[in-house]
Amino acid sequence: MSVSAPAPRTQKGRLTAGLPAEALENAKELFNNRRAGYSLEAPFYTDPTIFKMDMEGIFSNHWLFAASVAELPEPGDYVTVEYGPISLIVLRNDEGGVNVMHNVCRHRGARVLTAESGTTGNLVCGYHSWTYSSEGDLIHASAPGEMNFDKSCFGLKKAHSRIVAGLIFVCIADEPPTDFDETSKIFEPYLAPHDIARTKIAYQQNIVEEGNWKLVMENNRECYHCDGHPELACSLFPTWGLTEETVPPHLEEIWERNKESERALEERCRRYGLPYEVVEELDNRIAGIRISREPLDGEGESFSPDGRRLSKKLLGDLRDFRLGRCSMHLQPNSWFHFLGDHIVTFSVFPITESKTLVRTTWLVADDAVEGDDYDVEALTHTWKQTNIQDRAFVELCQQGAASPNYEQGPYMKSEYQVEAFINWYTQRMQEHLA
User: Fold this and answer.
1) Per-residue pLDDT tens over the stretch 260-293
2) Rounded CA separation 327/275 (Å)
3) Cβ(365)–Cβ(85) under 8 Å?
4) Regions of the chain where pLDDT drops below 70
5) What backbone torsions phi and psi does residue 221 show, to the nearest 5 degrees?
6) Could you tell me which of 365, 326, 330 has the C-alpha nearest to residue 346?
7) CB 73 within 8 A of CB 200
8) Helical spans, DSSP H, in 58-129
9) Which of 141, 303, 407, 408 has the lowest CB atom count within 10 Å?
10) How far is residue 76 CA from its own chain's centroid?
11) What pTM, to 2 d.p., does this model score?
C-alpha cells in the first residue's frame, strides 16, 4: 500500500544490539507471515525480543503524542515522558514552544529530573550536580582538576518536537517522518475551535495495565466490547463502527436514533462552520489518522448519564454545547475526545512487553471554577470507569496470549479499525527491518 512520504531513517540496532541473530530472524519471519484479518500471533504480545523491536521500529522512529500545552502553561513548566527504556524531558520555553531533551545526564547517565511534572529554571542532576540550561546546554560541572574540560561537548541530547493545535508531539528519530505535516493539516481545523491553549487540567489519571501496548491500542479501536461499558453507553452510541448491513436487530432502534442525531449535528456544524466529515487514513500513511465529529446520545453535549454538559464553560470560541464529540485516533499511541465543555486526551506508553501506562487527562476552560462550573468526580466518572473496565479486558487478552493454547482469531467487520492498526504496525515494522 502506498504512503504519502518515505519512511524515516530508522534507529536499527540501538535497542536490539546484543540480541541473538536467530531471535531477530524468527521475529522478522513473524512480521513477514502476518495473517491479514486475524489477530497477531502470541509472541507479538509476549516476546521481549519483539518488544525491543517495537521500541526501536515504532517508538524510536515515529511522532508520539506526549502532552498538551495545558500541562505546561508557563515557561519552566515540564513533564517527563517515559516509554520502554526512553525518558524525555518536555519543557516549556520562553518563546512559547517546547524543548525536548533526553532525561540522561551526560556525566554518568543518571536521570536528571525524576518527577513526572514540575517547574524548573536550570536542570540539575541530583547525582553530581551537573547543571544544564533550559536549552539543554551544560552550564556547570564541578570537575576538580579538569582545567581543559569542554562543557560545550556535553549538553543534553535533544529530540524533535511539534505543537499542533495545542498538542505536543515528540520524536527521537534522527530524521522524523515528514508526512506528519500533512496529517497535522487534516486535524488542526477540527481541534482549533476548542482552543487547548485556553484550557487547564481538571484531572489526570495514570493507569498501568498488565498488557502489551498493542492490546491497549486494539481495545480502543473497536466498540464490539462496548456492552462492557455501561457508563459510557449512556452517551456514546453503541452502534459505533457498525454499518446498515451489520447492525444487529436489538440495536436497530438505537441505530435510527444515532442517524437522526447525526443529521442534526451535521446541520449544526454547517451553521457554525465546524468540520465534521470522517477522514480515515489509518494505514495508508505513516502518521495514520482517523478524525470526525460524531453525535452523542441524550442531550448530545457530554459524557454524562443524560448527555448533558459537565462544565458550564464552553471551550474556545464555540457557541453551542450540543456538538457531540470530535473523536481523533492517531497512530501509534493516542486518541482524543473534544467536546463543547471539556477535552479528554489519552496517551499510551509501553513499559515492558506485558505492561503499559495509559495516561488520561481531562481539560476544561481555563476560567472554569472547580465546585462552581464543574465537579471533578462527575466530570471524570464515565472515563474513569471505562478505563478500569478496559484495563480488565486488556489484561484478560494478555493472559490469553500467554497461554500455550492461544490461536489467532478473526476480526469481525466492526473491528476493521483494529485490522487497520495492525496493518499499519506491520507495514512500519517491515520497513524498519528491511
Assistant:
1) 999 999 999 999 999 999 999 999 999 999 999 9
2) 12
3) no
4) 1-14, 143-147
5) -85, 10
6) 330
7) yes
8) none
9) 407
10) 24
11) 0.94
| Cβ 338 vs Cβ 188: under 8 Å | no
Q: Per the structure block, which three cell numbers stand in for 85?
A: 527504556
Buried/exposed code over 137-162 (b: 16+ C-beta within 10 A; e: otherwise): ebeebeeeeeeeeebeeebbeebebb
Note the pLDDT of residue 323. 97
The sign of the torsion formed by the CA atoms of 178, 184, 221, 334 equals positive
Rounded Cα–Cα distance for residues 261 and 302 (Å): 14
- Closest CA relative to residue 288, chosen from 34, 62, 82: 62
DSSP secondary structure letters along 161-204: EEEETTEEEEE-SSS--TTHHHHHHHHHHHHGGG-GGGEEEEEE
DSSP 335: E
**Using CB atoms within 10 A of its CB, is residue 229 exposed (0-12), middle (13-18) or buried (19+)?**
buried
Enclosing H/E stretch for 141: none
In tens, the pLDDT along 135-165 reads 999 999 876 666 577 888 899 999 999 999 9
pLDDT of residue 5: 39
